[in-house]
Structures are given as C-alpha cells and as structure tokens.
User: Fold Galactose-1-phosphate uridylyltransferase, putative from Blastopirellula marina DSM 3645.
Amino acid sequence: MSEIRREPLLGYEVVIAARRAERPQQWDHSPPVAKSLACPFCEGAEQLAPPELWAARPHDSPANGPGWQVRVVPNRFPAFDREEQPGEAQCGDEFFPRQSASGWQDVVIESPQHQISFSELSPENARLTFLAYQARLNALKSEGRYAYAQIFKNVGAGGGASLEHSHSQIMATERTPLRVQQELAASRDYFDRYGRSYWAELIERELAAAERIVYADDHFVAFCPFASRVPLETWILPRRADSDFCGVDLARLEQLAQLTQRCVSQIENALEFSAYNYLIHTTPFDINAQAYYHWRLVILPRATTQAGFEWGTGMFVNPLPPERAAALMRSAQ
Ligand SMILES: [Zn+2]
Assistant:
C-alpha cells in the first residue's frame, strides 16, 4: 500500500511506495546490459507484461502478441495504488499528515526492438509514442477519477531507469501534486498582475535575447532556460498559447516528436553519453489555464548529481552556463 506524506513545515510531498522495492533493477551498479533476454518489453515477450491498454498495430494483429509498433501496458510495480477508494480523506495530525496514494501508472513501450534512447527510434515510432501519450492522457482524463497526469521518461542508470528498453511512463493522481499547483498559481498571479501570460512573455524575451535559443520555428521554440538546473537543460514550448497537452493537434504532435528527438540527439552528441529525463508539464484535467499557461516538455540531462549542497540548500550547482549550453547544442546537430 502506498501513501502520500507531507512534510508539515515546508509542505513537500513524498510517496511512500514500499511495493516499488520489488521491481527489477537491470541497471543496478554494474555496466549497462546491452540486451536482456528476459526483457518484458521486446516484441515476442508480450506475455511477460500485463495486457495492453493501447497499441499501434498497422496490420491489425491481435492484442498482446507481436505486430505492434508502440504499445501501452500498466506498470507492474506502480508507485500508486489502484485499489484505494477514490478521494480517501487525509488522516494523521498536523505533524504527520498522510493520505492514501491512489492513482494509475502506464508504461509506454516505444519500440518492439530493444533500443535504449529516444534518439534511436524511427521518426514513426517517435510520432506514435507522442500519439500514445496523448491518447492515454485523454483516456485517463475521461475516467473522471484523476486530477492530473504526469508524462515522463527515464533513460540510463543516472536517469532512474530500471529497465533499459526505450519506454516512458504516465502517472495519474487523484490530487494535483503541490508543485504543479504552485506553478499554475504563480502563472495565474502573473497574469492577474500584468494582464498577460508569463509564458508568452518569457518566449518573446528568450527569442529577443537569442543566446539561449536552441531551435525556433512558427510553432515551437526550444531553449536552455536562464536558470538551468543541470547542464543542457532544455525546454520545448508551443509558441502560441496552448495550456493543455490533451488538445495538441496531430501535425504538431508529430513535429514535437521530431524536435524532441533532435534535442535529445544534440544533448547526447554534446555530452557523449545518454542518461536523461524528460517530462511534460500540462494543466490538471479540470483547469482551463489557456490564458496564462503553456504546456512544455522539459529535458534534464543527468551529467551532474544532486549532492550534499543541493540537498542542504535546494540550490543547484550547474557548471555549464545555459548560454554556452545552447551554443553547444546548436553546433552539435
Ligand atoms: Zn527489450
């Protein structure tokens, strides 16, 4: 059973998920395994994973067998419990506030072959991966049970991946996580104060400054943010106001998949390694933030680790200025 505990003074949240300790650790502390025979995500091993929830099957092959390009299955070792009663009341007292952690966790398997990084996928598999994200996000939204869903990807031991086969995850929660609430509240405050979107303003200023821009066209902008927490941290945003990833049209999804592949590839070329996370910030299901928020995809290369100083102060030490990082990425195409 999982539960969410909140630190009472500062309010940070922790999911205590004892069952996660049972999951396999391909990475462990040994060198990466090139290919595991027991990989549950490879084509032909479908019976090792739970029944699929979504799949791209170009020749209409039967579910849960070979013949797919991208497929989605439930996570066998979820951090959140499905069984809990929805909306179970918070309990404990003000010093030990706790709440049942109920939610849902998908795994998006991005390729039938045992590829590892998102940059190795065919453009078609990258496109279908983003299509799967959106389809599952909309399905979870329509269940009416969840408040928010986080799309994220962990690659490499440094990125927290426990299996190396290229995959991403979607975690849906019944309550909007505090961090997400804070970002939306700050965006809303800015809008109330200045009458325009912080995110629209930020994009305009980054484009004017130019030095942190990695890529820009009529629809998207990619840049290394001014206060990058890690070397080559990269944000991809829609240029026009668009707060909800659920509604991105198919042409833009395809373009986003390509741009993400391109940025990941530039990061890998620049750093000569491949451990990273990416994640998509979007609005909670029941909030319309079109006027003051932009969804965004954040790539966090894992060249540095959070050590004692970061844990003690909350300040990140980034040895690579984002202005140099952006130049490095532009030249690493
Ligand atoms: Zn595999």
